Amino acid sequence: MGIVSQEAIKQFQALMDRVDEPLKRSFQNVHQGYLVETFGRFLKARDSNVAKAHKMLVDCLNWRVQNDIDNILAKPIVPTELYRGVRDSQLIGLSGYSKEGLPVFAIGVGLSTFDKASFHYYVQSHIQINEYRDHVILPSASKKYGKPITTCIKVLDMTGLKLSALSQIKLLTTISTIDDLNYPEKTNTYYIVNAPYIFSTCWKVVKPLLQERTRKKVQVLSGCGRDELLEIMDYASLPHFCEREGSGSSQNSQNGADNCFSLDHHFHQQLYTHIRQQSLMKDSVQPIRHGSFHVDVPEAAAERTRIAKTIESEFNKFGNRNGLSESLDGLKINGD
């Protein structure tokens, strides 16, 4: 996590001791008993500036309270077929754990279409996976490995990445902003695999725009990245698109039980069962309204907006330079 001074931790804790309910209650849900690690994450996200880290955390807690995030795991996306559509078009799953016990999340960036549900369902699903990771997956890993495990690894598959990805810039920027402001420093390393030329072109331009802290987290691996990833995880934990060259991240590449993107995979089955059980418990106390979950999202930081515009510009240049028929004209940004 990097070095954070004990003095900064003490100052941060003194400030947080003054917050009132319901922020204090929400903060308990955030830190899950790992106070030092939580303070460290927010301090790292704000370059060890205690005042800025404190503001960031208080803003996060206000966001959680105002949007009822602490109860989002009791709000299933129903019916099941709608949720299956979300899973088939927002490719993410837990493939296993690293040798150090960090959860390995696989993300099919290139083949995620985000075209089976509304904007808000995808945001809701993303936050639910974040909350399930923080409240179930990480505590379970900490108990199993006998040490605090508060971060994860992400393997991003770029198979199938094309110009039409620009239609999802608003959604992806929203999700990224939510993560940056409310779940900072939860990812230890991002591994990029199966990167096509179009990604490599954009990465060369975007990389210098990123903060050094972020750049150090991103590793672009050759091909499917299997050999490099096997140095930090066992074969059983490899995402299916890393098992062999050209395997890709298609949700049809393996049967549902073996594909961590699929609703039939044990991770998603456990997640969905957990959400339904929490929903039944909440319903027994007070009936809750089902439906898409609207979350207020702060405007993206200037840096993030600049990066999004740079990506769009580079995609345009790539398309024009290669004479691709996949025109960017008329592409609609998802959302309301």
UniProtKB/TrEMBL annotation:
Matching SUPFAM superfamilies: CRAL/TRIO domain, CRAL/TRIO N-terminal domain
Top-level taxon of the source organism: Eukaryota
Chain ranges of the CRAL-TRIO domain: 79-239
A Pfam family it matches: CRAL_TRIO_N
Residues passing through the membrane, by range: none
Lineage: Eukaryota, Viridiplantae, Streptophyta, Embryophyta, Tracheophyta
Record organism: Malus baccata (Siberian crab apple)
Record protein name field: CRAL-TRIO domain-containing protein
InterPro entries in alphabetical order: CRAL-TRIO_dom, CRAL-TRIO_dom_sf, CRAL/TRIO_N_dom, CRAL/TRIO_N_dom_sf
